[in-house]
């Protein structure tokens, strides 16, 4: 099959699911990574299976990370969170960082690559997710310490860190119905959704843990839900954080918070 034919076939399979603009991007990405297209690939694309899962890799902050259906596909908004941390801390030496809910290891590994003076630890409750993080950690020789741990464990003690960062689950379950099949059918729901009754449950646990684990002059960085931004900031203030800064993403949506004790 010619390169042009490959693009055309992928576009035809994905356009009904994603629309013309995103389908064209998917087709070109697929053609860059693959020279052949199987019947199974076409079926998967037509069924909205994300191209990152079909290829087994996702691009993030200049890295090519192994991904699969046990971990979220890293998003551009999360790259912006990483960039904020790098910009704030590139002159901070030494530096200890904890990534909570690391998934594929995207945040932890990107920070370790771009803040070489940092000692990075990453935790996740899922052993399957940690296997992807291990593969990516080994590929880039970043030396991230990977641990299976639960942020809801009140006895969890990992020492003290200059930076704590997390992109936790934050999408209320009621919003699932409005989301595309490529997300709801394939990406791990436990990494995405929270109960409508307590959508900030992870932020509460992270704040509680961080208040006792943050080094003097340390900072907590969080990716947040745009529609719950002010509620999240209020929760952090109530948990004892003083200086709270909210930042918009490239689409002018409030998607990140940095706070200090």
CATH third-tier fold name of the largest domain? Rossmann fold
Structural class: alpha/beta
Please tally the helical runs, counting DSSP H or I stretches of 4 or more residues: 10
- Biggest sheet statistics: 7 strands, mixed
Question: Can you name the CATH architecture of the largest domain?
Answer: 3-Layer(aba) Sandwich
Following the backbone from N to C, one meets helices and strands in this order, namely HHHHEEHEHEHEEEHEHEHEE
Helicity, in percent? 40-55%
User: What characteristic shape results from the CA principal axes?
Assistant: globular
Strand order of the largest sheet: 5-4-3-6-9-11-10
* Rg calculated over all Cα atoms: 19 Å
Kindly state the mean pLDDT as a whole number? 92
Report what the structure shows.
By secondary structure, this protein is an alpha/beta fold. The protein folds into 2 domains: 3-66, no CATH class; 76-260, Rossmann fold. Helix content is 41%, strand content 22%. It has 10 helices and 11 strands. The protein starts with a helix and ends with a strand.
Features:
single chain; 261 residues; alpha/beta; Rossmann fold; 7-stranded mixed beta sheet; two-stranded antiparallel sheet; 10 helices; 11 strands
